[in-house]
UniProtKB/TrEMBL annotation:
Keyword vocabulary terms for this entry: Cell membrane, Membrane, Transmembrane, Transmembrane helix, Transport
Classification via PANTHER family: ABC TRANSPORTER PERMEASE PROTEIN, ABC TRANSPORTER PERMEASE PROTEIN YESP-RELATED
Family membership: Belongs to the binding-protein-dependent transport system permease family.
Organism of this sequence: Streptomyces mutabilis
Listed GO biological process terms: transmembrane transport
Designated name of the protein: ABC transporter permease
Amino acid sequence: MTTTDVPAATDRRARTPGGATERRPRRRREGAAWVFLSPWVLGATVLTLLPMAVSLYLSFTDYNLFDPPRWVGLRNYTQMFTEDPRYWRSVRTTLLYVALAVPLQLALALLVALTLKSVKRGKGFYRSAFYAPSLLGASMSIALVWRAVFNDGGTVDNLLGTGGWVNRPGWSLLAVALLTVWQFGAPMVIFLAGLQQIPPELYEAAAVDGAGKWRQFVSVTLPMLSPVLFFNLVLQTIQAFQVFTPAFAVSAGKGGPADSTLVYTLYLYDRGFVASHMGYASAMAWVLLLAIGAVTAVLFRTSRSWVFYASEGDR
């Protein structure tokens, strides 16, 4: 090899895809990416993954928050499913709450979104006004006000003369559900964004074919809005299974009257922090996680038959 061939060979090695010269900049870029990601990775590990691992371990132990955990295997799970009637009452109450609150909330959110779509002036003000309850409704102060409204001698009692809903087993869960329905602002904003993406030409074509308002809603609006409806359905269902603050405030933390507002998370709180059975509460938390995952999987599975996408390849 001549002297003039050495720089050419070196240049070819520098340009080789697997060469060391190219690997060094790639490693520097990856290192910079991990530096920027490190706060998230650290937070996810310390605040999410590690507590989940500890919770999974505690679910197989007898732990009262004061003494060291004692391994008991599957006893918490067998006791939960076979020996605890209040557990199954909390499951039934939660399922009833989800079946009641989620459809009402989505229906109201869609109705308001359809109304705001046709508003010409002040749309931003109305959108903000309807969204505000979503920011305020999860607070304990609003839940306490809600309890006062539906209590004996409260606003509802004075207007309807039916007595306070809070102290009536057949009505107390409805009062809790209505607080969730009142927080329809978030799904309403998402519905409104989806409605604004529907091409007006579809409504014009439907009108030319003689379709009225209801027919346009069923044949145009709902199919075109189905991906947004599915998104809201999944999101609100997951949140409904985790409801806690309204039930805690309305029932004063007891789940009454007659366990009519004893939702799952409230009973979990009672077992873990009132009765100090943290191992049992950890087992309940993991069952809830698996149940939410199963329900979400079912929703995704059934969505293939009713969710419409513009491109069939997106299904």
